[in-house]
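S.,

Sequence below, as promised.
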Amino acid sequence: ICAAQRKMDAVGIELNRRYNLGVNTSTFGTALCVVEVYDCIPSSEASMMRFDEREYELGNYDPKRFGWLTRNVRKINERIMVIRRQGFWNLPPDVAERITAALANKV
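The prediction came back faster than expected:
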């Protein structure tokens, strides 16, 4: 998961503050974490799941949208630049090596 490439708007800044997300504007274009994606559900099914208020506020559950269910989140503490777009894509080999090394070096 990578930080966005655009500056946060007022809503993003407020959500970051309210939920202590730790998103820093200097992290844009930076790898944040590695997750395991285990399912994808339509937004119509998301209403049946038990999300807390934070999840609903941070998500977009409009009709005809989908959500990726993730687990096994591994935070990357090192700043590793990787600029891509939304969706699935392949990491450049040098970036994949840096991320793998950063995850292995966790204390």
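The chain has a mean pLDDT of 76.

Coffee later?
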